[in-house]
Amino acid sequence: MTDVLFYHLERQSLEQALPILLDLSMQRNWRVVVQAGSP
């Protein structure tokens, strides 16, 4: 079964958290989908 993980921003802005999360995901060879609404 595939794991699906979500990250809820509470303490950091998207601009702060996203690069860190993407880097960690790449180090673990995870597939990542980033979805965002219009500003």
Topology:
Elements: H1 14-27
What would you say this structure looks like, in words?
The chain has one helix and no strands. It is mostly helical. The model has no long low-confidence stretch (mean pLDDT 89).
Q: SS-based structural class? A: mainly alpha
- Report, as a whole number of angstroms, the end-to-end distance: 34 Å
Helix content: 25-40%
Report low-confidence residues grouped into runs of 5 or more.
Answer: none
Strand content: under 5%
Keywords:
1 helix; single chain; mainly alpha; 39 residues; 0% strand
Summarize this structure briefly:
The chain is mainly alpha-helical and 39 residues long. 36% of the residues lie in helices and 0% in strands.
